[in-house]
Structures are given as structure tokens and as C-alpha cells.
Amino acid sequence: MKNHVSAKTRDSKEIQSIVLYTNHKNDPCAFVRLRGPMNHLKINVLEGYEDGKINTDQILLSDLVVIQRDFPNNQKLYETILEFARKNKKPIAFEIDDLLFQLPENHPDRQNLHYVESLLPMLQAIMEVDLVTVPTPLLKEIYSKFNKNTVVIPNYFDDNLWSLIPPVQKPDDSYPLIIGYMGGESHFPDIEFISPVIKYIINRFPNEIEIHIWGVRPTKDLESYSQVKWFPAITYEYHEFAAYFQTQLADIFIAPLVDNAFYRAKSPLKFFEYSSLGVPGVFSSLEAYKSTVTHGFDGLLASTQEEWIINLVQLIQNKEMRIQIA
Given CA atoms 286, 312, 294, 251 in this order, what sign does their dihedral have? Predict the structure, then answer.
């Protein structure tokens, strides 16, 4: 994200400030998609929704109204914002970074009915606003069916938060090697998917590797292995998480994704975060990573569990390959 990029509204006026309406004020959704980029662009972010109340006066002070994700579930508040913005001729954007309309059946947010009441209000917002912003081409293809003015604003590596850490080559006899995974609770299906691979690797290299998992809790069978270490999430504020995660150590990172429409629409953000730590990784061969990772050059791609095993074994046994990719 570089400051020379300009941001303009539909009347070509340069944007100086936006007003943000979100249910996710301090979590990664708001920071990665809005607060971080706005900071780089020197655009002021005005808080439109705090303590359960909206502030429509902020609309008058802004050049653009931004509504994020499931905020339209607050339907009366959303309609008040829409009416006020239209009356004052302020353009309205809707920001959504996931395919929430196609959550997999085993996704925790679907199982706990987290977005059930939000789906129709979000769809209404997508159809009504002036602009829809998404992070990936697949999301653009899908949401363009409901609003032709849908554009891709990719997720970027935020170098205000993340430093580029040089790779470190361990001595030959420096064990255990740490295989790391980082993800929120919604990624439990990915842990289930990769679990057989992790168990195979542990059984093949019982004294040479440890598995470190940050955030999502491992499956019960994985937890039974002494080589598996779980580190529960200590914060959901992105800048605090970035500072914490850069203090963690790993020799290999993994980024498994179950192959379905929801995960195919994901962005390669995890590749940026992992790579900034100077650590090589194995990534699911889905759109997010296939569009970013060159297999064998700056990462390894895997589709099947067999490919996951082959790639991990290569990295475990070949320190030159680890350092070259890192």
C-alpha cells in the first residue's frame, strides 16, 4: 500500500475522509480492508457506529459512506444511513471480503447460525449501494450479478505493521523443526482436513518436528500428540496480533484450505504474513494461492493429502530448499 495511490469519488473529488459503519470495529476485517489502507492513503476514518448508536452527522463530514459486511443486519439503522446519505448526495460503498452467502455446512459460522439474519439485509445493501468492494476476482464475478459496479481492491501486505524478517538457517542437528499454522476459529474445517497429514508427519518424524497452532483449537486426536502445541488467540485486534505473531518462531508454515466455493474466494493474505517472517510454506492449490505462489520458487502448492505429505517431507529433509524458498 503506497501513498501515491489516489482515491476519488464518482464526481472525481479526491477523498479526504470516509465514515465507516461496521460491526467489526477492532478486528482484522475492518483493519485489513479499511483502516490499514486508509491510513496509507492519508484518508481520515470517521466512526459512524459506536455503542450501538449511529452518528449521521459524520456523513456530512465525509466524502464517502462505507458500510461493511453484516452491518445491514441493523436494518433500521442501515436504512436511516442510506436515506440520510442519499439526501445529502454522499456516495455509498459496501465492503464485503467473504462469500458469506455460501458458507460450507461444516463452517462454524454456519453451524452457529451467525449470519442467518444478515444474509437478506446484506443482499439488499449490495443491490442498493453505489459501489461494492471485494478482495478477489471470484467475489467480483459473484457479486457483480447483483451490482454491476463491483470492483476488486486486493488485500495487501501492510508494511506499517509487518517487517520483513530475513530467513534463518538452522544447524543440521537443530531439532525439533517447527511446523506452524495460524488461523481463527472459523478455520477448524481446515484443521480437520489437514489432520491426517499432520499425524503422518508426526509418526514419520517423531523426534524431528513439532506442530505449533496459533488461534483455532486442534482436533482432539491431534491434541493427544505431545508434539502438538496449541496457543489460543490472545487478541482479535489486528495490529496487536501482528506484533505478537512476529515474535513467534517456525521453520515451515502451512495454509490448508478445504476446496469449496467459500474458500476459493479467499485472498492470499496468509501467504504475505507467513512470508514476512522469513519462513517457507506449503499452501492449498486454490485460487488465492495459485494466483500468488510460484510452486517451488516462493512456496509449495498442494491439492491432495498425498501432495501435502510429499511437500512437507521435502521441506523437512531439505534445509537448502527451506532457505531458498524463504
Answer: positive
Query: Which one, of 126, 117, 130, 154, lies nearest residue 64 by Cα?
Result: 130
Sign of the alpha-carbon dihedral angle for 233, 292, 190, 117: positive
- Interatomic CA distance for residues 161 and 86, integer angstroms: 36
pTM, rounded to two decimals: 0.89
Across the chain, where does the E strand assignment appear?
17-21, 44-47, 49-50, 53-54, 64-68, 92-95, 131-134, 150-152, 177-183, 209-215, 228-231, 252-255, 281-284, 300-302
113: left (phi over 0), alpha (psi -120 to 50) or beta: left
Per this entry, what is the length of the chain? 326
Q: How far apart are CA 289 and CA 282, in angstroms?
A: 10
- Measured in whole angstroms, the distance separating CA 146 from the mean position of its chain's CA atoms is 24
**CA quadruple 90, 141, 22, 7: dihedral, nearest 10:** -50
**Do 255 and 283 form a contact (C-beta atoms < 8 A)?**
yes
Residues 207-254 pLDDT 10s: 999 999 999 999 999 999 999 999 998 887 888 999 999 999 999 999
Q: At what angle do helices 119-128 and 75-87 cross, to 10 degrees?
A: 10
Q: In this predicted structure, what is the pLDDT of residue 1?
A: 39
Q: Which helix (H) or strand (E) holds 196?
A: helix 188-204
Alpha-carbon distance 68 to 94, whole Å?
6
Residues 30 and 68: beta-carbon distance below 8 Å = yes
